[in-house]
Amino acid sequence: MTVYFDNAATTPLDPEVLDAMLPFMREHYGNPSSIHGHGRQVRAAIENARKTIAHLINAAPAEISFTSGGTEADNYAAFGSIRTLGLKHAITSPLEHHAVLHTLQALEKAGDIQLSYLRHDEQGRLDLVHLEVLLATNPRTFVSLMHANNEIGNLNDIAAIGEICARYDAVFHTDTVQTMGHYRHDVQQLKNHFLVGSAHKFHGPKGVGFLYRRSGLMIDALLHGGSQERNQRAGTENVYGIVGLAKALEIAYRGMSEHQQHIQGLKDRFIDKLQQQIEGVEFNGTSAQADQSLYTVLNVSLPPSELNEMLLFNLDINHVSVSGGSACTSGANAGSHVLTALGCDPDRGAIRFSMSKYNTTEEVDYAVEQLAKMYRKVAV
Ligand code: PLP
């Protein structure tokens, strides 16, 4: 059996998405900026994709800008807001993805901002009282706090954070890369200025995504050149990627509750089986608490063992693909900045299982069995 449990890294393409993209690789090759028929046909496909995405998140089409993925969207929101609006302070958390952390650190290094880090507890739950304290002394701040953590799956209450940010007139960006296509986002119910989508996290193609930017908030482009995306993002559009992105989000919304139920069932099974078969197993962050974590991610903390260095390798040779790594390893394998921030035990191993609609209960049983086998070998 070959098993893929690394869906937070990327997901397999849905065949229906590929079918939607193929005509734009084969027949519809016009440049969308061309005014002739070949171009107009492709332009129409891009605008339809924009409308589809806007409709699904309850936004206006003009609020959607296509990007090369989540990283570019995070950079665009941060650089655009901070530089255009002259914001001098930003708040984030040490648990953010590097697409946000390194971007804000680059802006700090360039002298644009002073950067503050929000406090959190040992399970990675953010301290929203600290957020208020920071905002009270620094109004008109850029705040970037993710919806779900890609490593430990913790869900942040972005509705509550948005209310706090609104009280202090802060610009609020949320990296929703791990939740777009997995939860229903309604921008009318949120106070966010920005949200992000990356197609390859919900069975779409790699290298394409979007930034939702609330209307009225004008920011400068990140990429300069042609006048594509209403001067917001220069460069000939990734047409088939954009078509695939919209199709993938449409499919995700169509089957969302059914898939959520299926995947949560797999996660519950993982938790049960791991607890039955591996003594001393624990879960990092709020991973094992269904109401506080992304249903696609389970971050497992394994008891101290000489095997922990080789966990991913040993699973890989048994055809199980996962992500992980110990938090406190050194040298070439610098470990996880998220687990390090949680104050990990350097002797414990860590594995992230991340699931999709394509995984099965048999695959869960197989993966747990492979892992348990290793620990049983050590125990005898
Ligand atoms: N933000 C989060 C939370 C992610 O998990 C990822 C990808 O793993 C990114 C940003 C980057 O997205 P992309 O791969 O589309 O650049």
UniProtKB/TrEMBL annotation:
Positions the record marks as coiled coil are none
Obligatory cofactor(s): pyridoxal 5'-phosphate
Q: Which reaction does it catalyse?
A: (sulfur carrier)-H + L-cysteine = (sulfur carrier)-SH + L-alanine
InterPro entries in the record? Aminotrans_V_dom (IPR000192), Cysteine_dSase (IPR016454), PyrdxlP-dep_Trfase (IPR015424), PyrdxlP-dep_Trfase_major (IPR015421), PyrdxlP-dep_Trfase_small (IPR015422)
According to the lineage, what is the superkingdom? Bacteria
Q: Name one GO molecular function term.
A: cysteine desulfurase activity
Give the Aminotransferase class V domain ranges.
3-366
Keyword set, alphabetical order: Iron, Iron-sulfur, Metal-binding, Pyridoxal phosphate, Transferase
Q: Where is the signal peptide?
A: none
**Family, similarity comment:** Belongs to the class-V pyridoxal-phosphate-dependent aminotransferase family. NifS/IscS subfamily.
Q: PANTHER family from the entry? A: CYSTEINE DESULFURASE, CYSTEINE DESULFURYLASE FAMILY MEMBER
Q: What is this protein called?
A: Cysteine desulfurase
